[in-house]
Structure formats: structure tokens, C-alpha cells
Design goal:
about 140 residues; 7 helices
Length: about 140
């Protein structure tokens, strides 16, 4: 089977179009194309929420490439810099998820606890509490 052709992104694409293209590229597993698309984001004058989404997508690309330690660091950076944005909450939980997948129980526990301290009623709060119960103290 051959890979689907890369989607062309107009040279003067708006931030929302670039983010949509990067999401499609990641869904197709084309992390290199997604990173290339996201490098164009700053020139397109994104707003703060769009910058946060772009940073989260870059972290996702690292994760998909198997660069898990770099992905954790990237997620942690998004969580710090965009704590009040939805991307910040997502990144906080995703950092814990990657640590858990790596078998880093103590670090995953700390990350889940940080997530719950920051987002006690958050989107992933129930899942974070469930996962904490599964990780030995």
C-alpha cells in the first residue's frame, strides 16, 4: 500500500487552516509534514489559543515519533505556559499518560497529582483519580 499524498497547504494559510492541516497530517502519521506545517504557524499570526494548540500538536508529533522523553518535556512546557487554556489542561494529563506508558510510575504519579491539583474538576479528573489508584505509592 502506498501512503496517501501529502495535503498541500496554501502559502498564506490562516492559523486555523495550518492547525487543521497539522491535525490531518498527524492523523495520517506524517509527523514530519505536521512539524513543517506547524513551523509556519508563527508567521501566520496566531492568537494565544492557536499558539497553545500548535505547541500541543508539536508535543503530539514527538510522542508519535517515539521520542517520549522529549514529548513529556514538551507537554510539561505547554501545561506551564498555557495553564489556563484547554491545551494546557490536555498537556498536563498527556504528560502523565506518557510517563505511565513508559513505566515511570513515580513520575506518572507526581504528574497525575499535579494535574488534579491544577484541574480538580477537569476534563480528565476522573481518569486521573482512577489511574492514581492503579499506581502503587
Amino acid at each position: 500500500a502506498t501512503a496517501p499524498p501529502r495535503a498541500r497547504v496554501p502559502a498564506r494559510a490562516r492559523p486555523s487552516a495550518l492547525l487543521d492541516a497539522a491535525r490531518r497530517q498527524l492523523a495520517q502519521g506524517d509527523t514530519a509534514a505536521a512539524r513543517q506545517t506547524l513551523r509556519r504557524l508563527d508567521r501566520a499570526r496566531p492568537d494565544r489559543a492557536q499558539k497553545a494548540s500548535g505547541a500541543l500538536l508539536l508535543a503530539d508529533a514527538l510522542r508519535l515519533d517515539g521520542r517520549r522523553q522529549e514529548a513529556v518535556a514538551a507537554y510539561a512546557k505547554v501545561a506551564r505556559e498555557y495553564a489556563l487554556a484547554p491545551a494546557g489542561e490536555n498537556a498536563s494529563f498527556l504528560a502523565a499518560e506518557v510517563l505511565s506508558e513508559n513505566g515511570e510510575a513515580a513520575e506518572a504519579r507526581s504528574a497525575l497529582e499535579r494535574y488534579l491539583a491544577s484541574y480538580p474538576g477537569g476534563r480528565f479528573a476522573d481518569e486521573a483519580r482512577r489511574r492514581l489508584k492503579l499506581i502503587a505509592p
